[in-house]
Write a structure and sequence with these properties.
Layout: E1 7-12, H1 23-42, E2 46-53, H2 58-67, H3 71-89, E3 95-98, H4 102-117, E4 122-131, E5 136-137, E6 143-146, E7 155-156, E8 173-177, E9 185-194, H5 200-209, H6 216-228, E10 233-234, E11 236-238, E12 253-255, H7 257-272, E13 286-291, H8 297-311, E14 326-328, E15 331-332, H9 343-349, H10 354-363, E16 371-373, H11 375-405, H12 417-426, H13 429-437, H14 442-463, H15 465-468, H16 473-493, H17 499-509, H18 543-564, H19 576-580, E17 584-594, E18 602-607, E19 612-617, H20 625-628, E20 632-636, E21 642-644, E22 647-649, E23 652-653
Parallel strand pairs: 1-2, 1-13, 2-3, 14-16
Antiparallel strand pairs: 4-5, 4-9, 6-7, 6-8, 9-10, 11-12, 14-15, 17-18, 17-20, 18-19, 20-23, 21-22
Helix pairs in contact: 2-3, 4-7, 5-6, 6-8, 10-11, 11-14, 11-16, 12-14, 13-14, 14-16, 16-17
């Protein structure tokens, strides 16, 4: 950390108030941010922790339309649910507010006007889809049609969820409005744009040269955007839910949610500290840190800094420790499919076990790559680490002290070589933890804290004071003193990670608080200090509790399959001559590899009997490349070539799909010659 920083402003991505929070949100953003803030507070540093709900934008209006209520009804319900869940889970925000607040509306509007009056925007007129029946311009998600790539029905105006292709509304075949069902028309509309290209030069220097310490995933994504070249980005849109654009001639237009939402960090601060908020956002001696998921990197590293720079009086972020994504039971977390572990449900199903989830999510933190959460791993880490190592050590140390010394810290006698070696193992724990925490390596830091518990557990197991109690109580006193000092150190080391358990441990040790500076000390508990009675820090989680969670997911998957599968409507009749134009043959896949920088595309080399040709297919989420090689599949070989990511594809492989949209291979029941025609 720059030694000139006097304080730190920490923000977390604002969750959309159109649904509850799940473990993917927690692992990616909120648990690591809370760990970091608690660490800074423990060190006695001045820090402000800002959170809030993002309550504008199309996802809110879609949810409201689906539920037959107003957008305000939706955000009120989910904002309160999210806020309560965070509080119960121990996410220690100094303020958790919302973007529908009066403070936010005024500040966001003033921010826009400042940039507008400085000439920082450009105005552009464009043609956009308009629903004449509903008398409204249509956001991309309010337009559906046939995908031009895979020809699936129901593709959205921004993406086909079947093949994963990124789309524009004008790409859709037979587009229609999801509001009225009518065919939209193109209509002229005016919007304001932030010319990011104007900021490209200083952004390149600031990110690529001045912040090489940023995580590789953050640095790399920013570099990719800068290398391609930045383009102007609209800051307004045609919508009736949001903050009205505060200039003349902007009726029916609101601030685009990407522009409005990050200003929420500032407005929430102002709401909390109306008289002193500026020092947290405008003083160069304040450090700004954004905790986000990888889908928000560009907004927080390029777009929001460009907004702040254009305004002119704000500090820029010093670091943006973004995580990758967390999967659930080897499948992507999906709110639309209800494939998630929801925080508010977890708090009901596992009362008092907030720290267990915090521990497991940190242990599996997707800091450098996507990671996976499974209920069996959750159970194993609780039973084998929290219970068997940490909890077991604390319980034995305090119970034995009560048994042999009336619950008072015994005197430290002469140290053996093993005592000295054990002490030496943990005296540097503070330095090691700081090395990890200061660079946002929370997974490694927590592992180091647990190693301290392992040291204590091993020390008691090796010295066996319960046996020595028959012959040498002076030796037992020394062993228990050292054990209790380790226990006190654990109360400090785990405070940022497991706040509920650390508080419980401090209560057993009869200590109100410790300072971070004392971590690693061997005299945290004075001779004669009285302890409270021992309590179990953690309890074993039985198979039945885990089986119930796994069954819930299986039920969800089955319900999704039943709801999702329905035969597509038959297409219009064609003439026999139309069918004869299709040349479909059996091809053999010779080579397969993923297309770089895509999650769904796979590049295949296929022997069609006539030639060996390249075909790009959107099946990477359904098959591994090695599983494709040697398979015989039906191929439409006379489809006009198309380019995907610079790769020219000559044909289309035909696949059926299951209810979840996963593709299946369709092959002849016995091997045939490549080029065999399907009749």
């Amino acid at each position: 950390m720059n030694k000139n920083f006097k304080r730190t402003t920490v923000t977390t991505a604002l969750p959309y108030a159109n649904g509850p929070v799940h473990i993917g949100h927690l692992a990616g953003v909120y648990v690591p941010a809370d760990i970091y803030v608690r660490y800074l507070r423990l060190k006695g540093q001045e820090v402000l922790f800002i959170g809030g709900s993002d309550e504008h934008g199309v996802p809110i209006t879609i949810r409201a339309r689906k539920e037959g209520c107003t957008p305000q009804d939706v955000v009120d319900r989910y904002h309160n649910l999210i806020k309560k869940s965070f509080e119960e889970f121990g996410i220690s925000f100094d303020v958790y507010s919302r973007t529908t607040s009066d403070t936010h509306h005024h500040l966001a509007s003033d921010f826009f006007k400042t940039l507008y009056e400085k000439g920082e925007f450009i105005e552009k007129t464009s043609q956009q889809y308009y629903d004449e029946e509903a008398k409204t311009f249509l956001a991309d998600r309010y337009i559906t049609g046939e995908c031009p790539h895979c020809h699936a029905e129901g593709a959205y105006g921004d993406q086909c969820e079947k093949c994963g292709s990124t789309l524009s509304p004008t790409d859709l075949i037979n587009p229609k409005s999801t509001i009225s069902g009518s065919k939209p028309v193109m209509k002229e509309t005016k919007h304001w744009y932030l010319p990011l290209d104007k900021h490209e030069s200083w952004l390149r220097q600031w990110i690529l040269e001045d912040h090489k310490e940023w995580r590789p995933n953050v640095y790399g994504q920013c570099k990719s955007w800068l290398d391609v070249g930045l383009q102007p980005r609209a800051v307004s849109r045609d919508l009736d839910w949001g903050i009205p654009v505060p200039v003349e001639g902007a009726e029916g237009k609101v601030l685009y949610v990407w522009f409005d939402a990050p200003i929420g960090y500032i407005s929430n601060t102002k709401e909390l500290l109306p008289d002193s908020w500026e020092k947290w956002w405008k003083d160069p001696e304040t450090r700004l840190v954004h905790f986000i998921g990888k889908d928000n990197i560009v907004f927080h590293c390029i777009v929001f800094p460009a907004m702040l720079k254009a305004e002119g009086s704000y500090i820029l972020p010093d670091n943006v420790p973004s995580n990758e994504f967390l999967n659930l039971e080897d499948d992507k977390i999906s709110t639309s499919r209800n494939w998630a572990v929801w925080l508010h449900e977890y708090l009901v199903d596992f009362p008092g076990k907030q720290d267990v989830l915090r521990y497991v999510l940190t242990a599996n933190a997707p800091e450098t790559k996507d990671n996976n959460f499974t209920w069996k791993d959750f159970q194993a880490r609780n039973n084998n680490e929290l219970v068997a190592v940490f909890g077991n050590f604390i319980n034995r140390a305090i119970v034995l002290t009560h048994k042999y010394f009336d619950g008072k810290v015994p005197a430290l006698g002469q140290l053996s070589e093993y005592d000295q070696a054990t002490i030496q193992e943990f005296v540097d724990v503070k330095k090691t933890l700081e090395e990890y925490l200061d660079v946002f390596r929370f997974r490694d830091a927590q592992k180091e804290a647990m190693n301290l518990a392992r040291i204590g557990n091993k020390y008691l197991a090796d010295t066996e004071p319960w046996k020595l109690a028959k012959t040498d109580m002076n030796r037992v006193a020394t062993i228990m003193n050292i054990s209790l000092q380790i226990a006190a150190n654990l109360a400090i080391a785990f405070d940022p990670f497991l706040p509920f358990s650390a508080a419980k441990l401090r209560n057993m040790l009869n200590i109100d608080s410790f300072t971070w500076e004392s971590l690693g000390s061997t005299d945290l508990l004075a001779e004669g200090h009285a302890l409270q009675a021992a309590e179990l820090l953690f309890e074993k989680i039985e198979d039945s509790a885990i089986d119930a969670q796994i069954q819930r997911l299986l039920d969800t998957k089955k319900a999704n399959e039943q709801a999702a599968w329905q035969p597509q409507a038959a297409k219009e009749d064609i003439q026999f001559e139309d069918f004869t134009k299709l040349d479909i043959r059996i091809g053999t896949i010779l080579e397969a590899k993923p297309v770089p920088k895509t999650s769904k595309l796979m590049q295949l080399l296929v022997d069609t009997g006539l030639d060996k040709r390249t075909i790009v297919s959107g099946v990477s989420e359904s098959f591994k490349p090695e599983d494709m090689i040697g398979k015989q599949v039906p191929v439409l070989i006379n489809l006009k070539p198309r380019s995907f990511r610079g790769i020219e594809s000559h044909g289309m492989i035909l696949y059926p799909s299951d209810a979840e949209g996963k593709y299946l291979l369709m092959s002849p029941e016995r091997e045939v010659r490549p080029g065999t025609v399907l009749a």
